[in-house]
Amino acid sequence: MAEQEITVCRLDELDDPGAREFEFDTGDGRDYGFVVRRDGEVHAYVNSCPHTGSALNWAPDRFLTKAGDQIMCGVHGAIFRIEDGHCLAGPCEGRDLNDLDCRVVEGEVRVRVA
Ligand code: FES
């Protein structure tokens, strides 16, 4: 499918730290991603844990640890760095989330999906 850029939300709608799930068209179905903001930076990943492929969030838009400093999979508790999606602990330690290009343009959080 052709590459597309979608607007997930306005930056000021995203807590710091905070995360927001979004849905996108893959050309032959739908998939899910999420954006995560921390210390003023925004990152985006496909919402699929490297352990089993499950969605990471344990409730709508809840992707982070209580301290808000790491991404945590709600299924078996794997911990990922926010900055690069690298798994630091848990059953998929050493693996990475699939990252997506993300940028902030005119106050909007935009993600390139393909
Ligand atoms: S599905 Fe994420 S840690 Fe098992």
What distinguishing features does this structure have?
114 residues; mainly beta; 6-stranded antiparallel β-sheet; 3-stranded antiparallel β-sheet; 44% strand; binds FE2/S2 (inorganic) cluster
Structure explained in plain terms:
This protein has 114 residues and is mainly β. The chain has one domain (4-113): Rieske Iron-sulfur Protein (3-layer Sandwich). It is 0% helix and 44% strand. The protein is built from no helices and nine strands. Strand 3 (30-38) and strand 4 (41-46) form a beta hairpin. The radius of gyration is 13 Å and the shape is globular. FE2/S2 (inorganic) cluster (FES) binds next to loops.
List the topology elements.
Layout: E1 4-10, E2 18-25, E3 30-38, E4 41-46, E5 71-72, E6 79-80, E7 87-89, E8 99-105, E9 108-113
Antiparallel strand pairs: 1-9, 2-3, 3-4, 4-8, 5-6, 6-7, 8-9
Bound molecules: FE2/S2 (inorganic) cluster.
The site of FE2/S2 (inorganic) cluster (FES) has 11 residues, from loops.
Helix vs. strand class: mainly beta
Would you state the CATH class? Answer: Mainly Beta
Helix and strand succession? EEEEEEEEE
Distance between the termini: 6 Å
How large, in whole angstroms, is the Cα Rg? 13 Å
Instruction: Round the mean pLDDT to the nearest integer and report it.
Output: 95
How would you summarize what this structure contains?
This is Nitrite reductase/ring-hydroxylating ferredoxin subunit. The chain has 114 residues and is mostly beta strands.
